[in-house]
Here is the input.
Amino acid sequence: MKVRAYNRRMDTIAKLCRVRRVFSAVLLFAAASVAGAARAEEGHPLTVPDTLQQRIASCTACHGVHGEGTPESGFFPRLAGKPAGYLARQLKDFQDGLRKYGPMEYTVRHLSPEYMQEIAEYFSAQEVPYARSPLPRVSPEALKRGEELATKGDPSHQIPACAACHGTQLTGVQPNIPGLVGLPYDYLSSQLGSWRTKTRATVAPDCMAEIANRLSASDIGAVSAWLAGRELPSDMHAQPAGSISPPLHCGVLGATGDGA
Here is the structure.
């Protein structure tokens, strides 16, 4: 019952924040459309520059101009600097209905694989400063549990350490494993909850779904708080391909284990 209540609470918070952000993006789009129509009526031809930056306006409206995310909301994650393979896979998962979020599913539904790869490579190449997000009040015991899960795992519950897949500094691994440090608490906890409620999935075998379902609600809060509050490493780049050997077989990583 506690797990279901937790997931319902996180889903409700996420939806409220998402609706507010998307509504703001819609208002900006509408304002731009009205301004463009006014210029056309005044005899000025409306021209839209054919640039990647213009074409990804629907991305940057929520994720920031350079994909830096929106730390103040806690729910629109950073795209900048994440491995391109991971970003492209997320777009494909939204397109295939494996990952659920209406605005994203609508945005990517007609994009070609080549275009999604281009978008992924653009955001992957962006390097902008990290901004910290607000943290909830968490007990020292919970933070200790979160650190244990992130760095050592819990063998008694068959939970591998986050670092076993996401890199020794939790900054990700090229080309398909994202970093976890620097992400907001709300985003981390809601995504773990999404794997539990099957509103986020990926190609089988879905190892993150397996792990998330082995975590308790308190574990999700603890590890999310520790990751969100961890001091950022001096080098936030993802580790090179082949530098780790994941303990589980994950479909997104292919036959070689790390997606390389």
The longest helix spans residues 2-41. The chain has a mean pLDDT of 86. The domain at 2-124 is CATH 1.10.760.10 (Cytochrome Bc1 Complex; Chain D, domain 2).
